[in-house]
Amino acid sequence: MLTLRSSFVFSGGAMARTRLLLHVLLPAFLACSQGERIEGVGEGALWFEGARLIVGDGSAPIESAAFLVQADSFVWVGRQGELQPPDGAVRVDLTGATVIPALIDGHNHIGLVDVRTRTNAKSNYTRDNLVDQLDRYAYYGVGAALSMGLEADRELAYQLRDEVMPGTARFLTVGRGIAATPMAGPPTEARLGIPYGAATEAEGRAAVQELRAGGVSFVKIWVDDRGGSVPKLQPEVYRAIIAEAHGLGMRVLAHVGQASALADAKDLLVAGVDGFVHTVRDRDVDEEYLRLVRQHPDVWTGPNLPGTPVTQVDLAALSETLPPEQVAEMRADLERRMAQGDTVPSELFQLQCRNLRRIHDAGMILGLGTDGTGDAFGVHQELADYTRCGLTPHEAIVAATSTNARILRLERMGTVAAGRSADFIVLESNPLDDITNTRRIREVYLRGEPVDRAGLRTRWTGSGQP
């Protein structure tokens, strides 16, 4: 048996995948008693051992874990010594490392911003730019990302949604979102004309029907007047949208603004909304809202907090994917803020922290979304922000893995378990001790294949060194 220390890269040909083999092997593995060895493992099987394993479902970590990957799936997961490595498998020693499931970003707006040119325009919405941003997600250990309603080219978005690209994150989309007019935010060229405009109930229902025809399962609505710069989606219209969507087996996700978010969120809960992509952020939630939350236990939120400014720890990770001149600008800004003593989280951040804790305590399902535009590192910043708001590192990881997978109905993602897609991150240190250890990535595997992180670093920064 070949034994390797991680890190290494396999060729695509040696890792040819078939799920048929998984269905043949899995029952045999489950039938094995402790210490037995399974026979008949196919070419390219990988046996990982020695790491601490955080499964992703909230259960206690498995110390000195072992797991077998065949094709694109986990075949067996357990403790080291419970099963002997099968003959023919490549053995990978992960002693001292921690393994977590690949992360999932439940809310982003990729494609309009080009991270490389630092521009924001509809002309950026190309396959090249979208794939570049999906590669950035893969680099940081994100296995799937849901684009939330600003698709400048619907056909391209649907095409990418249906593709599985080796070594990169899965692209998920809600298609075009629905606002009162074809404008989801302040008047900017990048966003103008992308959303459906629904000034009437009939227009709202027609937009839902068109989304369903495109195979979309979520409907994104903006209930926000953007400080008076755009009309607001009216209650009778979003009620019609929710009714139409539910009749077609779809779910509705709401963006609430910063002016009357609490009142709008209350009414949306009563109207039957399925989830929120922001927390209430205009005022502290009250007992009436928390009572509505408890009355609707299946409603979820994927809050993206306003965050704290970039830290030195952030810069260390960002420097792996951003041009040196951009990192230098960010470092200069950090040094300026530190010299001025500007290190206290904003009042808006503190407000949203309080509301996050209150809805968490009331039982609302918490996923995780970044509202990001392409840098992909925001998932790790959001994890850190969750812990700043009082969640434990384990709770934050669960939100970004198994909970997001359940919300998005990604049945094969979110946990390290037999039969699931082999999407996982190998970390140098334990994130349960310090959540920023999720950035200390040794390797990323998506669908059983290692991501070529060194090659990606070379493409983006000119250096393959982290």
Fraction of residues in helix: 25-40%
Beta-sheet strand percentage? Answer: 15-25%
Strand order of the largest sheet: 1-6-2-4-5
- Count all strands and give the number: 22
| Unreliable stretches | 1-34
> Helix- and strand-based class?
alpha/beta
CATH architecture of the largest domain: Alpha-Beta Barrel
The CATH superfamily of the largest domain is: Metal-dependent hydrolases
Q: Structurally, how many domains make up the residues?
A: 2
**CATH level 3 topology of the largest domain:** TIM Barrel
Mean pLDDT: 89
Could you characterize what this model shows?
This protein is of the alpha/beta class. The model is unreliable at 1-34 (pLDDT under 50). The strands form six sheets. It has a five-stranded mixed β-sheet with strand order 1-6-2-4-5. A five-stranded mixed β-sheet has the order 3-7-20-21-22, covered by helices on one side. The chain has a five-stranded parallel β-sheet with strand order 15-16-17-18-19, with helices on both faces. The longest helix has 16 residues, at 324-339. Helix 7 (287-295) links the parallel strand 17 (275-276) and strand 18 (300-301). The protein has two domains: 3-101 and 415-461, Urease, subunit C, domain 1 (Roll), CATH 2.30.40; 103-308 and 345-407, Metal-dependent hydrolases (TIM Barrel, Alpha-Beta Barrel), CATH 3.20.20. It has helices at residues 19-31, 127-139, 154-161, 201-213, 235-247, 261-271, 287-295, 312-318, 324-339, 347-361, 378-388, 393-407, 453-461, and strands spanning 3-5, 46-49, 52-53, 65-70, 73-79, 90-93, 98-101, 103-108, 113-114, 119-120, 142-147, 170-173, 178-179, 196-197, 218-223, 251-256, 275-276, 300-301, 365-366, 424-427, 441-446, 449-450. It has 13 helices and 22 strands.
